[in-house]
Amino acid sequence: MNWPATERHRLTPAPGGLALVQDLLNTAPADHSASADLPDLLADGALDRAQEWADAAVRGWAGETGRGDVRLVLTADDLPKLRCLRDQLRRALAADDGGGDAVRFTSAPVVVSLGGDGCLAVEPEGAGARWLASAVLAEGLLAQASGVWRRLKICRNGTCAVAFYDRSRNNSGVWHSVRGCGNAAHLRACRERRRAKA
Ligand SMILES: [Zn+2]
Q: What is the pLDDT of residues 158-195, one digit of tens each?
């Protein structure tokens, strides 16, 4: 399993390295019809579970982006930092929707290299949470440059809030699952309309 956090929602991961950003977002606890009460994969006191997630996600990222083995070691101190990064990313994606204020949430160093083949590459720097922040922000930058960043979205169902990649032609999706969260919202709206009429 390359993207354990995203795959636990039975979602197709975002293309390329952007799936790392999506997978970090999906480590958050979630509750929706398809899979109720999924735990926070970055909760304090569960370092083994967080490390297991990081091992798989970093392996997935290395595979998707054609890199060799990358080993990321998390410590207990990394967990609150990663949850903070995750919250900031979530808010940034939500702001992208409605034109929020340009607040600088976070920053991380990266190394940009020019290879003999003429290709430029962005490499994450640091260790632990710093490395992950660097990798995630670099992938976000590349996704913005290629125009796919705006397809990474947070499900509009507040209790769900799963990160999904919108593959619709006009990028109009708002639910991680039209049949699940979308249908539940539709039924709720119908019921309210009926009540208003009565
Ligand atoms: Zn949802």
A: 888 899 999 999 999 999 988 888 888 888 888 888 88
Using one digit for the tens of pLDDT, what is the confidence trace for 64-86? 999 988 999 999 999 999 999 99
* Nearest C-alpha neighbor of 21 from the set 110, 109, 120, 148: 148
Domain that holds residue 189: 4-197
CATH of the domain at 18: 1.10.3300.10
- Name residues with Cβ closer than 5 Å to ligand 1, which is an ion: 32, 155, 157, 160, 162, 176, 181
CA of 70 to the centre of ligand 1 (A): 32
How many independent structural domains does the chain possess?
A: 1
* CA 172 to ligand 1 center in whole angstroms: 15
Closest listed residue to residue 18, CA positions, set 108, 117, 143: 143
Ligand 1 centroid – CA 82 distance (Å): 22
pTM assigned to the model = 0.91
